[in-house]
Amino acid sequence: MASRCCSSTSRTRAIMPVHIYGHPVEMGPLQMLADKHHLVIIEDAAEAHGAEYLGRKCGGLGDMACFSFYANKIVTTGEGGMVLTRDLQMAEKLRGYRNLCFRPERRFYHTELGHNYRMTNIQAALGLAQVEQVDEHIAHKRWMADTYGERLAGISSLQLPMEKSWAKNVYWMFGLVLDESTGMDARQFADRLKIAGVETRPFFLGMHEQPVFLDRGLFSGERYPVAEYIARQGLYLPSGLTLSEADMEYVCVAVKKCLH
Q: Does residue 206 register a pLDDT over 80?
């Protein structure tokens, strides 16, 4: 989560920190780098609705921020998302790109290429209703993380989610990283859990390992050991808001059995 490797080149224009799995990025070092080189910070807060860095909400820490409203997010409209900025000119540009770049002074007249990213009124109503309950949902997510954490604590072969002292983690998903000493990777562990009646989801695969990019000559010879390790050894346990304490107890019992 912490920003340990901060560097830029003459071609760098922006920094995009990713607040991942519900935990914020340590923004202080990034802000110093951005100030030094006059760079824009664009937060990826897709998984961090309500997460906080030093008491400040993710999405309000940089120059711009993007949120996802996909079905598995804390606030969802089924699909879509939003972009935040304090820059009025940029906000107007974004509104244009969202709406086919119609000119405000002349409809059906275009000087730039835009897209149709308009959200329907029904989707917006769904999202607004959930925003009204977001504090309750975040409190429930944190309770779920505590419940899982208490039951899985002390298992040396599992790395559990964490929360830095400067952060408020909203635990978008409860992720586990399986130690290689178990002799299993995440896929094999997931297969065992599925037989036990527990469905899981793998961590994301790094862009540098995606065939579609490698076939185009991108990322040739590049290695990112941390991303590769957690993609190979990481998975999410069931994390939906409707899970009961009994459901989570069942999951934890299955996890322990499948490790042996």
A: yes
**Domain-by-domain residue ranges, the chain?**
14-131, 135-258
Residue 235 pLDDT exceeds 60: yes
- Residue 15, phi-psi category: left (phi > 0), alpha (psi -120 to 50), beta (remainder): beta
CA distance linking residue 193 with residue 230, whole number of Å:
18
Chain centroid, CA 106 distance in Å = 39
The pLDDT tens digits of the residues spanning 136-166 come to 999 999 999 999 999 999 999 999 999 999 9
Asked whether the beta carbons of 258 and 193 are under 8 A apart, the reply is: yes
Domain 14-131 in CATH 3.40.630.30? The answer is no
State pTM to two decimals.
0.88
Structure tokens at 73: 């997010």
Which helix (H) or strand (E) element contains residue 135? helix 134-152
Topology of domain 135-258, CATH: Aspartate Aminotransferase, domain 1 (3.90.1150)
Contact residues for 252 (Cβ-Cβ < 8 A; gap 6+): 148, 151, 152
